Amino acid sequence: VNGTIVIPVVVNVIYKTAAENISATQIQSQIDVLNKDFNAQNADFSNVPSIFSGVKANVGVRFELDQIIRKNVNKTSWGTADLMKKSSGILPTSPTTKLNLWVCTIGNGILGYAQFPGGSSSTDGVVIDSRYIGTTGTATYPFNLGRTATHEVGHWMNLRHIWGDTNCGTDYVADTPTHNTANYGVPTFPHYSTCSGSPVEMTMNYMDYSDDRGLYMFTEGQKSRMLSIFSAGGARNSFAK
Ligand code: ARG
Ligand code: ZN
Ligand code: CA
């Protein structure tokens, strides 16, 4: 019933190797990135091209590290079928009031994945591969600026990929341009879409696939789509206080 949304974050670290057992410092570096990116406090926010300055947004959601839970297991990689959230891994803690983040080796080149609002609370949260979380320790270039978690938390707050997962598809957000498909690396600006109206693509939007240093903004339309899930009747209203 207060204006600001503050999300407690439970970090579940599942490791076989010492490298996978990432430090509290590395975890806190990720929390810090989330707080910057969701509050327009990221240093690269000023790099947003002027054609997008009218829509770039301060989302205004804060994240607080609640607890770190660690488990040593004898498993090399976990895939994307939620096994790490079951008893062979670590069950979520208070998933209707806390964002659970699992850190483990996913495999198959997957950096992270998320559950959209409205799914089962027993699997709710975000999974980030231990080499692509935070900005220090095992964080690996070009995904070493914490933007995988920013992108996945965007999904957790109901955002779709900016290209709508099909050629010139929709992300259900009016102020993001229509993209042909995912962008990779750090595209040279301006990169034109061949979709209707040939708009300049917003390749620096967190919901594209550019490298971490190429991602630095959400839009006002994405902000309203995210905040609506916390309002009365929204799928994540249990997080609002
Ligand atoms: N789910 C996406 C993947 O695993 C995450 C992409 C994040 N992109 C980034 N630049 N960190 O490929
Ligand atoms: Zn995604
Ligand atoms: Ca759009």
Automatic annotation (TrEMBL):
Originating species: Faecalibacter rhinopitheci
Keyword match Signal: yes
One example GO MF annotation: metal ion binding
Family per similarity comment: Belongs to the peptidase M43B family.
Keywords linked to the UniProt accession: Disulfide bond, Hydrolase, Metal-binding, Metalloprotease, Protease, Signal, Zinc
Name assigned to this protein: Zinc metalloprotease
Organism superkingdom: Bacteria
Coiled-coil region: none
GO BP terms, alphabetized: proteolysis
Parent-protein start and end of this portion: 77 to 317 of 317
Domain Peptidase M43 pregnancy-associated plasma-A as annotated: residue spans: 112-228
